Amino acid sequence: MSDSLQDQRDSAVVAVPDGAVPGRHRVVIIGSGFGGLFSARALADADVDVTLISSTTHHLFQPLLYQVATGILSEGLIAPATREVLAKQGNVEVVFGHVREIDLAARTVVAEALSARTTYSFDSLIVAAGAGQSYFGHPEFARFAPGMKSIDDALELRGRIFGAFEMAEIAAASGREADLERLMTFVVVGAGATGVEMAGQIAELSKRTLRHDFRNIASKNARIVLLDAADQVLPAFGDHLGDKARKRLESMGVEVQLGAKVIDLDADGIEVEDPDGTRRRVEALCKVWAAGVQASELGRTLSEQSGAELDRAGRIHVQPDLTLPGYPNVYVVGDMITLDNLPGVAQVAIQGGRFAAKQIVRRLQGEATQEKFSYFDKGSMATISRFSAVASVGRLRFSGFVAWLMWLAVHLFYIIGFKSQIGTFFHWAVSFLGRQRGERTFTEQQIYARLAIDRLGSDFRPSADLGPAAPAATGAIDRPDDRSDPSDA
Fold first, then answer.
1. Which Gene3D superfamilies match (predicted)?
2. Which end of the chain is less crowded, N or C, counting CB atoms within 10 A of the terminal residue's CB?
3. Residues 179 and 200 in one domain
4. Neighbours of 424 (CB within 10 A)
C-alpha cells in the first residue's frame, strides 16, 4: 500500500458538507434504505444541513428483490441512485462509505470508502442501517444458500437459479440422469413473505417461462421445496390467509414442508429434522435462505455507549420516542430497533424516519416533542403467483386476484421515481400477461464474487491501491474447488 493511502487509513479527515451554513444544525443519517431516505426527505424544508452516509450508492426497494433474482425486473428499477433521488434537495449531501465508528459523546461518525476515512460531526443523528440475513448461528450456511437482502444477493441467486437449469440441460444431454434430481431441485428456507414469493416465482419460471427453452430437459418437472421450522405459512398473516397461500403454492406444484428444521447444508443438498426427530436429506444444488434477520452491527456500537439492551437478533431497545437512553439527539429507526413488538416491515422504517425528522425540527423550533412514536399499520401483502396474492388490511382479509391488484397498486406507488414506476409496470406486463422475462442475464462472476471476497478473510478492506504488489499480498483467488457447475458453490 502506498504511503498516501496508508496515511488516509490511519487518520480520518474531518468533512464539512459543501454549501453548509456555519452554525446551522447538522444532521447525519446513516443508511439509504426506507428509514434513511424518508427521514432525509422529511427534512427538505428544515433549516439544517443533512449528510446521508450509506454503504451503497442506491436506495433499495427490498420487497421486490425476489423479482430481480427470478428475472422479472432489472436491479436499476428497484435501486435508483440515492444521489439522483435527492439531487434537488439542496440541504442534503450524499456520501458513500461504510460507517466504522460512532462516538455518541463526541458527536462524530467515521466512515470509510476504500482506504479513505472521513469524520462527520453531528448535532442530531438518525441511524437507519437496517438488517442483514440471519443464519441462526450458522454463518457458514451463507456459502451455499444466499439470503435476500441486497442487490448482490439477488444477482447471485439469479445466476444460481438459471445456472441450475443450464447445468441440468448439460447433464441430460450427456446422459448423466443421476445428476438431474439434484440439479432440478430448488429449496427455499423460510415460509414468510419472501420465501413464499420466491417459491412461487421459481414455480412459475419453471412451468411457464422456460418450458419451451430447453431441448433435453422439461423445466416443468423442476421440484420446488418450501421449508420452515414453523407450523404455518405466512404466520404474520394469520391462519386463514396462511392456509390460502399454502393451498395455492401446492396447486402450483410447490412442496410445502412445515415443522422442518434445517440441521446442515452443503453444495449438494440440505439436511432437515422433522417434528418427530427424524432426519432426512434433500438433494438440491440451488438453495435460497429467506429465514430470519440480524440487525446491523452498529446496533452493538450504540448499545455499548448508551447502555440500551440488544435482543437476540441484535436489535436495540429504544425509548418510546425512538431515541437512546441519555442521548435525546440520537434516533434509531427501522429494522434495527425493538419497540412494542413492531414488525420488521418497510412502513415501520418509513414512519420512523419521518417521525425522527419531525422531532428534530420541533426541537429546533423550540416546540414540545412527542413522547411516543405511534405506528399506523397499513397492512401486509404478499404475492404467491401472477394474479394471486394475500393481503391483510386492518380487520379485512383479501386473497386471490383482488389482493394481487392491491399488491400491484401499493408497490407501484412506493417505488421511488416515475421512471422506475413506468419501467416496472411494463416489465410486469411482459411477465404477467405474457410468459417472457426480460432480465435473465447472469454471469459466473455474480456467483463467485462473494465467495472470492470471503476467501480474503475478515480483515480484508477494499483499497484503491491495485498495483502489481496487491496480488502477492492477498493471494491468488481460484475458482472455488474448480467445480464444473457454475451454481455449485
1. 3.50.50.100
2. N
3. yes
4. 23
Listed as own residue / partner, the contacts of 405-412 with beta carbons closer than 8 Å and 24 or more positions apart are 406/381, 407/381, 407/382, 407/383, 410/381, 411/63, 411/64
- Average pLDDT value for the chain: 91
| One-letter amino acid for residue 101 of the chain | E
96 vs 99: CA distance, rounded Å: 10
Residues noted as catalytic: 197
- H or E segment at 406? helix 401-414
pTM over cut 0.85: yes
Would 461 be classed as within a structural domain? no
Q: What angle do CA 351, 357, 358 make, to 5 degrees?
A: 90
The model's confidence at residue 472, banded by pLDDT at 50, 70 and 90, is: very low
Is the pLDDT at 9 greater than 90? The verdict is no
Indicate whether 285 and 417 sit together in one domain: yes
Instruction: Write out the H or E segment, with its range, that includes residue 266.
Output: strand 261-266
pLDDT band at 470 (very low <50, low <70, confident <90, very high): very low
**Packing angle, helices 193-204 and 238-251, rounded to 10:** 20
Same domain, 191 and 244: yes
| Same domain membership, residue 336 and residue 276 | no
| Cβ–Cβ < 8 Å for 120, 111 | yes
Residue 61 is assigned to a structural domain of this protein? no
CATH number at residue 106: 3.50.50.60
Among 395, 410, 433, residue at a domain's last position: 433
CB 142 within 8 A of CB 347: no
- Residues 241, 269, single domain; the answer is yes
Beta strands in 115-229 (DSSP E): 116-121, 124-127, 131-133, 185-189, 223-228
The rounded percent of the chain whose pLDDT value lies above 70 is 90
Please report, to the nearest 10 degrees, the dihedral formed by the alpha carbons of residues 207, 209, 212, 218 taken in order. Answer: -30
Looking at the structure, tell me whether residues 241 and 208 fall in a common domain: yes
Per-residue model confidence as pLDDT tens digits over 150-161? 999 999 999 999
Residues 157 and 282 in one domain: yes
- Residues 322-335: what's their mean pLDDT? 97
| Strand 98-103 with 108-113, pairing | antiparallel
- Position 243: which residue type? D
Give me the domain span that covers residue 404: 139-289+379-433
Count: domains in the chain: 2
